């Protein structure tokens, strides 16, 4: 990083928003899990799309690579720089527009947190369709870039279903405003969709039009215990296809032990596996819940919450998992989507594989079972270097053998780029690289992400 380039960046965004301080850069060059670290040369924090555009032009002309950062909650090292990059943070893109209650939409800056969007929607009597445990720090720009899913995907879909329009700065500094007020618009390419899930490799999202939804009048939540994972899956299939399904979450009892011991949140039911289910609608769904559970192979009576306070208490165990996973150090994380029919076999095979590589480690499985989108976390995993890579590669191969996808909702980032061919054909990868080359022929934007 040369002094003239730093001065040019400061002239764009202000000297107070450019940093080359080593402590600042070190803190910004580690991923959310704490397992993966990189190197950066400078941090720049633009406040407008035009400033983002100028920053990109200056960096491209100087031949400097750029890594884009939002809330830095990536679990696949998607914001970890590898080439002494300039870190471009979207944290100052914090505009929150007024909620259009009639059209159920809102325009926000890419640096707005999920929690802030949720608060704005709630104040207007509406709800935003995506929810994550990292809601207080995850930014909607980053969530769109990774096409995040989360706790409500079974009801509302991923971020791609919530994005109605985008402001994007392209790698050459051009600013694209893709907005439409009409509900049906089939004019040319669906460009906005191209940037959702692209992990910042094609451009920098600076603003979003987001879809909002009406709040259901009634809601009921239950946590059910199962001794057998196949029995839980069978019940989950029924709920998945039930009108009004709002959430469907699998929790491994080993996760419940951790939340009880380290967060003071006890499991409300017994069983090796737990299923959190929530139904919602314009009419009370409690009777529908009871009918489905009457045929389920439960370990005992389910815990049911019909009022807001009871529902929040039932959610505590699921919500607490993310906070306790790091109690023994950074966990090794896998984000996988699997056919429901293979989940039980995968869970058993994964446990055996982990025991072979790290006998002291604890496998913890949880996630969004309605989509087969599960999070396998290896807690107390002391492996590093080649030993860690050997376990990671073996797990990726196991996922592929069970018909799964190596990346479900967390994206590829830098952590999974060598495994993309397990889920995409050579033709798929070539097409994606062609799109990348068309938008970013210099390959300077998020260069470590997605591709080898």
From TrEMBL:
SUPFAM superfamilies: FAD-binding/transporter-associated domain-like, FAD-linked oxidases, C-terminal domain. GO terms for molecular function: FAD binding; oxidoreductase activity. PROSITE patterns: FAD_PCMH. One of its GO terms (biological process) is respiratory electron transport chain. Residues 36-215 form the FAD-binding PCMH-type domain. Belongs to the FAD-binding oxidoreductase/transferase type 4 family. Pfam families: FAD-oxidase_C, FAD_binding_4. Its cofactor is FAD. InterPro entries: FAD-bd_oxidored_4_C, FAD-bd_PCMH, FAD-bd_PCMH-like_sf, FAD-bd_PCMH_sub1, FAD-bd_PCMH_sub2, FAD-linked_Oxase-like_C, FAD-oxidored/transferase_4, Oxid_FAD_bind_N. The keyword Flavoprotein applies. This is FAD/FMN-dependent dehydrogenase. Keywords: FAD, Flavoprotein, Oxidoreductase.
């Amino acid at each position: 990083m040369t002094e003239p380039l730093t001065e040019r960046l400061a002239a764009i965004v202000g000297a107070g928003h450019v940093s080359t301080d080593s402590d600042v850069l070190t803190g910004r060059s580690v991923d959310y899990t704490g397992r993966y670290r990189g190197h950066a040369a400078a941090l720049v924090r633009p406040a407008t799309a035009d400033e983002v555009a100028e920053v990109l032009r200056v960096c491209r002309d100087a031949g400097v690579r750029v890594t884009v950062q939002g809330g830095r909650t990536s679990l696949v090292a998607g914001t970890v720089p590898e080439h002494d990059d300039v870190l471009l943070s979207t944290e100052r893109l914090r505009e929150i527009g007024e909620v259009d209650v009639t059209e159920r939409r809102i325009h926000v800056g890419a640096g707005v947190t999920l929690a802030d969007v949720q608060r704005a929607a709630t104040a207007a009597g509406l709800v935003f369709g995506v929810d994550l445990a990292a809601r207080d720090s995850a930014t909607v720009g980053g969530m769109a870039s990774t096409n995040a899913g989360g706790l409500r995907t079974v009801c509302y879909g991923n971020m791609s279903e919530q994005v109605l329009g985008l402001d994007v700065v392209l790698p050459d500094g051009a600013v694209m405003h893709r907005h439409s007020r009409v509900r049906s618009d089939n004019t040319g390419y669906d460009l906005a969709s191209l940037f959702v899930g692209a992990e910042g490799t094609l451009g920098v999202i600076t603003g979003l039009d987001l879809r909002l939804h009406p709040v259901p009048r009634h809601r009921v939540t239950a946590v059910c215990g199962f001794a057998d994972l196949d029995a839980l899956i069978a019940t989950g299939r029924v709920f998945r296809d039930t009108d009004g399904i709002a959430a469907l979450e699998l929790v491994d009892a080993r996760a419940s032990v951790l939340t009880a011991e380290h967060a003071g949140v006890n499991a409300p039911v017994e069983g090796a596996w737990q299923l959190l289910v929530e139904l919602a609608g314009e009419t009370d769904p409690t009777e529908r819940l009871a009918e489905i559970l009457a045929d389920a192979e439960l370990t005992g009576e389910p815990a049911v919450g019909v009022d807001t306070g009871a529902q929040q208490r039932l959610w505590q165990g699921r919500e607490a998992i993310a906070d306790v996973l790091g109690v023994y150090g950074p966990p090794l994380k896998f984000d996988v989507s699997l056919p429901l029919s293979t989940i039980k076999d995968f869970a058993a095979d994964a446990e055996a594989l982990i025991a072979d590589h790290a006998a002291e480690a604890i496998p913890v499985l949880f996630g969004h079972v309605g989509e087969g989108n599960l999070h396998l976390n290896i807690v107390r995993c002391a492996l590093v270097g080649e030993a860690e890579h050997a376990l990671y590669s073996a797990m990726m191969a196991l996922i592929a053998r069970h018909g799964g996808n190596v990346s479900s909702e967390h994206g590829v980032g830098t952590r999974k780029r060598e495994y993309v061919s397990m889920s995409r054909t050579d033709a798929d990868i070539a097409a994606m690289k062609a799109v990348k080359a068309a938008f970013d022929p210099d390959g300077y934007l998020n260069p470590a992400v997605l591709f080898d």
